[in-house]
Give the backbone structure.
Amino acid sequence: MWPQRQVVSAVAAGSRCVIRSPIHETGPEVMRSLCQGRRGRTCATYLDMNTSGRGGSSSTFHEWINTVGVVLAVGLSLFSLYRDQTQRADDEVREAMKVSLYWTGTGEAPTGVLVENQQSLRILDVVVRLEVGDATVQHVRFGEVHSCTQDSFSFGAHQPQVRTDALFVLQFRDAAGHWWQMKPGAVLDRIDSDEASQPGGDDLVTAWGLKRETGPASGCDQ
């Protein structure tokens, strides 16, 4: 970059120029006198200022301060966004944990299945899968379970036809549209809609004509 030039006023005094406004030479600042005149005549003196001198350093410092301010503002905004998303995800998990799956009878001979919803909102597309390995061999479709409600189906005389070697897995969709899956031991996972697709095996509610029983959920503040 070419050096900046500033013209200052000077008065010729003999063989030298006297600068009316004192200018202190610092670093790369160099004054060149082009004054060749008689006593008392005004002449021109040029002050060459390299932009890397004091003026340039001050400008660079202010730019650096502005950059740091922008970076800090962006960083704080991202941190606030991450904190809000994390808090929201934690709240969603806590709400999903208010849904429970039980079976009546014993594990070796279950006589029915029960879903309890302690949330303040209803849950949708509720289904209990009976899984052997990675395959769903039977399922019980609840559909909708209202808030602060427990719904159950009893197998009745069809109990001997229930696959006792199967794992009971609960899947449902909350009011916000998120899909959840719960396995024995309160193992809760958030799943996508593809994983919660149409379950295989017979729907025992339809196949056996099971009747829904409804009651209040325990420990639910509605």
